[in-house]
Each structure stands twice: as C-alpha cells, then as structure tokens.
Amino acid sequence: MKKLCTISIFVAIITNAQVGIKTPDPTRTLDVNGTSRIRTLTDKSNDKNYDQVLTTDASGNVEYVPKSSLNQQYVELFHLKTLPSTLNNSNTTASTISTQSITLAKKALVIINFSVPINLSNTASDGRARILITHLLVDGNTSVRSSNIYTNSTSTGTNLFGLFYNTGSYFIELAAGTHSISLEGFCMDNAACTQGGNLPGTNFQATALYNNY
After folding, report:
1. Which of 157, 96, 4 has the alpha carbon at shortest distance from 12?
2. How far apart, in Å, do the first and last CA atoms of the chain sit?
3. Which residues are within 8 A (CB) of 23 and not within 5 positions of it... i.e. 6 or more apart?
4. Which of 63, 65, 53, 4 is nearest to 28 (CA)?
5. Cα 52 from chain centroid?
6. CA 6 → CA 2, 12, 23, 30, 55, distances in Å?
7. Is 124 exposed, middle or buried, given 0-12, 13-18 or 19+ CB atoms closer than 10 A?
C-alpha cells in the first residue's frame, strides 16, 4: 500500500506538477491542507550563510524574507524645542504646559524625554525653600514627577532667582491607537513661576520603537 501511494504521488507530480495533501485542488507544487511537523532542526543562528527567514501570508503560502529586513523601527512622534510659557501661581494645582496627541500604528515602546525651563516670577527673599515641580502624564496618568528643591536661606543667600530646569525620561509600552502625552507644572511654597518657553535646552520629545520581527 505504501509503495502504491508513493507511486501515485510521483505520477501526480509528473502529470500535474502539483501535489495536494488532503486537497483535490492544489494551488502550489506542494499544497498541504493541514498542519506540518519537522522533528529535527539545527540551530544556525551563528551561520552567516543562513540569512533568510520563512514566512507565510494569510492563505498559508510559504515564502522567505531576508533576515536583514527584520529590525526595530524608530519613528519620531514629536520633538518640540519650544514650549508655551505657562504661568502658575497656585500652591496646589498644576497648570498644563503642553499636551501632544500621538497615534501608533501598532503596539510600540514609546520613549519620552523632557527638559523644561523654569523662571521664578519674583525674586524669593523670605529665606524659605522653593520646590519647582514638573509632571509627565501619559493618557492622564502621572508617570514621572520631576522636582527640584532650591534653598533660600541666609547661609546660601536669600535672594533666590535665575533659570532652573526640570528634566526626566520615561519608557512605556502602549497599544495601537491614539494616546496623549502631557507636561504640567507648579511651584510650591507660594512661589509663582513660569514653566516653558523657547530658552536653550528646552525639549519635549517622544519616539516610538516598533518591533518588526
């Protein structure tokens, strides 16, 4: 029986140049309507001659793509070097500096960096410390709290003034679709301050890392 089946397959190859297993209408030289199994495979990850990867389409057609084409794709979502100058004079409520909407084609690792300049609206001369705060929010959730405490005492000088920066970085995996990335800030201990502007070093940037493997 086995010999008969083998002969039948060879005859089909000669006459039709196509063989179907569990299908009467093969569309390729070998068309398998079912699963396949290879019992033994050899690891060739260190062999440079093996530089192709098998892949299939939705219909199960098997082809290959060059291994060099499988990579991680970086896509810059936005890169701002100027931010709105946002005045905050509340001790408890943050003011939104910038909100950016992003759209991801598929799930990606999103890398976010920011550097926000801060100016005190008035010179601090009461000898009390000032806490300058900038928050990064992703989809409305606080992700990074960047704070700096600047002393304002008799030992270091009671006239606190000048330019300050809050910086931070964040990595998050986000699903395909639209997301919001925001910066907000406030300065505590009754210190009115302005965050943002177009000063040197201002930066608000997001990059998507897509895995194309």
Report:
1. 4
2. 44
3. 31, 32, 33
4. 63
5. 27
6. 6, 10, 17, 14, 29
7. buried
CA neighbor of 185 nearest in space, from 140, 150, 144, 134 = 134
CB count within 10 Å of CB 155 equals 7
From CA 192, how far away is CA 34, in angstroms rounded?
Answer: 71
Q: Which residues pair with 208 in a beta bridge?
A: 75, 110
Amino acid (one-letter) located at 65: V
Q: By three-state DSSP, how is residue 210 classified? A: strand
DSSP 117-176: EEEESS-B-SS--EEEEEEEEETTEEEEEEEEEE--STTT-S-B-SEEEEEEEEEEEE-S
In sequence order, what are the residues at sequence separation of 6 or more whose Cβ sits closer than 8 angstroms to the Cβ of residue 173? 107, 108, 109, 110
User: Beta strand pairing status for 62-66 and 163-174?
Assistant: unpaired
pLDDT tens-digit series, residues 111-157:
999 999 998 877 777 777 778 889 999 999 988 888 777 766 655 55
Structure tokens at 63: 């082809």
59 φ/ψ angles, rounded to the nearest 5 degrees: -90, -5
Residue 147: count of CB within 10 angstroms of its CB: 14
Does residue 8 have a pLDDT over 60?
no
Helix (H) or strand (E) holding 9: helix 2-16
In one-letter notation, the amino acid at residue 9 is I
**What share of the chain has pLDDT > 70, as a percent?**
84
Position 4 scores a pLDDT of: 46
